[in-house]
């Protein structure tokens, strides 16, 4: 079994925070020194000077908490939707193929937010069997970072497996005001061309589908 870790993307680059006593124990560093070290790693990834960084220590929770302090956290939730033909629902947003997902609103739980976002972005109705979909062994959400108006954002996205019938959804409706231009059912065997035009965290999900 692999050591518990968090994998956090910045575009296609990523940082892994890993619980591993065999590493130099970064989590034993004073909080300020650890924060500075992680910030330098973040900057290297953002500037594309490195494509991968791994930081290890005995205290994974501390590593992640210090890492999060460099970001504003915005939670999101989304759906991996299958129909009766075992096809997967994809959307095309801002020129990239993606899975339906969006920001969790105040007072919502993750499952409710995931269902709402799927319905809003695709026009689907009658979603059933909404169950947690875990992408990584010890990490519930996918994690990615980006910059908006000069501020670093960390977005944990919680995923849920869902089912629906195409008989109840003859017409799919992309939410164009959110930059969505297409909604499409795709057989799992035909996913590869779509995966080549998507985000790295979404490619990780494809490995579990």
Description:
- This protein has helices spanning 31-46, 60-68, 110-122, 192-195, 200-206, and strands at residues 5-10, 13-19, 52-57, 72-73, 76-82, 87-93, 96-98, 101-103, 128-132, 142-148, 151-163, 180-187.
- By secondary structure, it is an alpha/beta fold.
- Strands 1, 2, 3, 4, 5, 8, 9, 10 and 11 form a 9-stranded mixed β-sheet that branches. The chain has a 3-stranded antiparallel β-sheet with strand order 7-6-12, with no helix packed on it.
- Total DSSP E strands: 12
Radius of gyration: 18 Å
What is the helix tally?
A: 5
The chain-level mean pLDDT equals 89
Class from secondary-structure proportions: alpha/beta
| Percent of residues in beta strands | 35-45%
| Uncertain segments | none
Gross morphology is elongated
In angstroms, what separates the terminal alpha carbons? 21 Å
Task: Give the helix level as a range of percent.
Answer: 10-25%
- Order of helices and strands, N to C? EEHEHEEEEEHEEEEHH
Main beta sheet: 9 strands, mixed
Features:
single chain; 209 residues; 9-stranded mixed sheet; 3-stranded antiparallel sheet
